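Problem 3 from the worked examples.
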Amino acid sequence: MFGKLPERSFYYPFTIGDSLKKIWSSEINGSFPNSSVSVYDKYVFVNDLSGRIYCFNINNGKKIGQLKNGGAVFSTPVVERNMVIYISTLNDQDFSYLYYYNLFESDYLKEIKVPGRAMTELIKTNDGIIFTTEKGIVYKFSLLGEKIWEMDTQANTYCSPALKFNSVVFGNNNGELISLNAKDGSIQYRVKINGFFYGGCSVSGTDIYIGNDNGNLYSINISTGKINWKVNAGARIIMTPACDDDNVYIGSLKGDFFSINKLTGNINWQKKLGSLLDITPLISKNYIILPDQFEKIYFIDKDSGIIKKTYSFENRVKLSPVIKNNNILFIGYDNGVLESYEILN
């Protein structure tokens, strides 16, 4: 899923090099949203805004197949054994379709009409799929397509949720942070923070990290909803925060990128890139791989904030980078180009 785990972890706990060797390049029909690929076994799955899900061979980039539905697929598809689960939102209608596609049988198991436009990332749990809609209705379906619960929070929601300790957490347009019980959908707390939460949230340790339209990054205790600290980045934040063991990393739409101590909220370093930063970076032990909308990817030294390498592309980089087998990097850029690279030391 997007962020690997329900808490949204973009951290890969190993050292990588900063040189790239292209393995393959493939093209899709539409443009990418700000999501990522989903890697399963020898397959790479990716969604686009023309309503398609694509499957590629991980070794050579050969397209194995595609699924086409109406509307747009904003969220990374979830792969559960032989099932691909994704949601498509119709551009001119106030509903979405949740699809369960059986890879072994090459057929749909379920097609479920859901009220509201689903524009945020899915969460895969051990027993189901959780997602939000634009109107603030939160759903949980089983891995076989049976509805477990729904909760109408009655507030417009564009913030992708995260889950940890049985708590589904997300922000909304009213500046609230909401925590739901993942088992039954009941509200655990609903606290007013501030601003407008558009980007996603992540959880590391016992704390939620989330940014808002006021440019504030918050650390919030997941059990109580109490604010630990906040840091102002000087411009809107719609990037989902990325964490490692000690720090949280965030960028703003003004092009400033920050490393911040998770415990204290102190800024370790700040990098002024002058671009538009809305794609969540990949964090390794030594490097941050940061995409920007100005057709670049940066390899940034995690300790100092120094840019070690810059790679330029033909168009805007749109997908959050993903690593497979410790050295295979997947990136995507407009207009619908997906590429695989070997990371060299």
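Problem 4, a separate protein:
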Amino acid sequence: MITWLKNLFFGAEEPKPTLKTYTPPVVEEPKVAKKPSAAKSKKESKPDLGKMTKPQLIEYAKKKGIKVNASLKKADILKSING
């Protein structure tokens, strides 16, 4: 009865809320067995430059150290790469 009176006049102590943090579920990547690669030659094969887009050709030229201008036509970039 004393607790009832305390609650009546002083208010019941409310339980302190606890913070629950969201922890996302752990998703494991499926393990894919690596296929044995075909016998690769030590020399890189030259990609088919004719099928590449202009931005791809510009990036390829930069990797090879060939200076090309983005304002050039695709044919001109191909000439610069091929020499």
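Solution to problem 4. The chain has three helices and no strands. Helices lie at 2-10, 54-64, 74-82.
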